[in-house]
Design brief:
8-stranded mixed sheet, alpha+beta, about 15% strand, 10 helices
Length: about 375
């Protein structure tokens, strides 16, 4: 068993916003802009108050803010309350020893020791990239992990390194019955893919196997807004649109039985294969803050050079993407876009100007600051 900290796994550099300015919107109904470095330091400080070592807190905070920088707001600092609750309850280990349990030239299994999920997944990502460069492919599974933010964080670096990436996870709570059933035995079970392409933006596709991710429903609940019809149904089969009643129904899989099948396949590869939770073994990481979730995940990296492609893959992909973008839009439709289009420029703008958070989240962060004995992050914002 080899300690991952000997591998310098945090090799993927993360750049942050310059400047020191944070600004409150004139109206509290408008998003609030805050400097990324300020936000990162706040999140890290909050994690440290729950016993997380400084280096780990910095790593996790960096990835959490990176999620907001790339536009994945439902899986960024919005999740801080849940992470702090699990640390306080003991379900999440503040001082994990992330280790490699099994390893071959192209594969590995990481034990996250019940720590913050970002630590194990970042380690899995970096190890998969390392193996892909040496063996052509790297596939790294994770067991005893935790919620780790958007999977895009663990596939985009592959594309930036000229590799293809894939990652998947067993959801951190069961919100979906098997197709045709009524028992909640499946999660949102997300999956993500990435690929290099000449140009500013790599291909990055990150999706849940449900019509909507639970994180979107939680953000609507926080903001007091309804869900669209088609996201959830109640046990009576009727549409459920009140996010406060989400526990009364279940999420719908994408494509009916096809989404169900994909979710099960992910559960086999990210859960069963890694000795991690799947089915009735899954622990709801929000309502249960004391139990180990044994969350299962995997990260893959694939080297085009192993197929004789080298840099030709990125140029060929860019050519095909250009053809798709040039397709004449249907009447009333926007021009064709590829997953990941515009993400790079938007992220650069947020690093420079700051990220914009909804006022409900800002107030919640202020409440968390009070709970943690920290100064409020938004001192001019009403606590109402």
């Amino acid at each position: 068993m080899v300690s991952l900290y000997l591998r310098q796994w945090f090799g993927h550099s993360v750049s942050w916003c310059s400047g020191t300015k944070s600004r409150l919107a004139e109206m509290t109904s408008e998003p609030v802009e805050i400097n990324c470095q300020t936000l990162r330091e706040f999140v890290a400080s909050a994690l440290e108050t729950r016993g997380v070592p400084e280096a780990d807190a910095d790593r996790v905070a960096s990835l959490m803010v990176e999620a907001d920088i790339f536009g994945y707001g439902t899986h960024g600092v919005f999740r801080l309350r849940q992470y702090l609750a699990r640390l306080a309850g003991g379900g999440c280990n503040a001082t994990p020893n992330v280790t490699i349990e099994h390893e071959t030239v192209a594969t590995a299994l990481i034990d996250g020791d019940d720590g913050l999920g970002h630590l194990a997944m970042a380690a899995a990502r970096d190890l998969a990239i390392e193996k892909a460069k040496e063996a052509g492919i790297g596939w790294v599974g994770v067991r005893r992990g935790n919620h780790s933010g958007p999977l895009a964080l663990y596939v985009r670096p592959q594309a930036e390194a000229g590799l293809l990436g894939m990652a998947a996870a067993v959801g951190s709570a069961n919100h979906v019955p098997p197709y045709g059933g009524s028992d909640l035995l499946l999660g949102t079970n997300p999956i993500a893919f990435s690929a290099p392409a000449d140009g500013q933006d790599p291909f990055v596709f990150d999706m849940a196997t449900t019509v909507a991710a639970m994180g979107k429903i939680k953000t609507l609940l926080q903001q007091g807004e309804p869900m669209p019809e088609g996201w959830m149904v109640g046990r009576d089969g009727n549409p459920l649109t009140d996010p406060a009643r989400k526990s009364e129904g279940f999420l719908l899989p994408i494509g009916g039985p096809k989404g169900f099948g994909l979710s099960v396949a992910i559960g086999l590869m990210a859960g069963v294969l890694n000795g991690a939770a799947f089915g009735s073994d899954v622990v709801n990481f929000t309502s249960d803050t004391t139990s180990s979730t044994n969350t299962g995940q995997f990260v893959m990296a694939l080297n085009p050079a192993a197929f004789g492609m080298g840099n030709d893959f990125a140029s060929n992909a860019a050519r095909v993407f250009s053809e798709m973008r040039a397709s004449v839009p249907l009447p009333g439709h926007d021009p064709v876009r590829l997953p990941g289009d515009g993400k790079t420029a938007a992220a650069e703008a947020r690093r420079k100007d700051g990220v914009r958070l909804n006022p409900a989240l800002c107030r919640d962060l202020n409440k968390l600051a009070e709970d943690c004995g920290l100064s409020p992050l938004f001192p001019s914002l009403s606590a109402d």
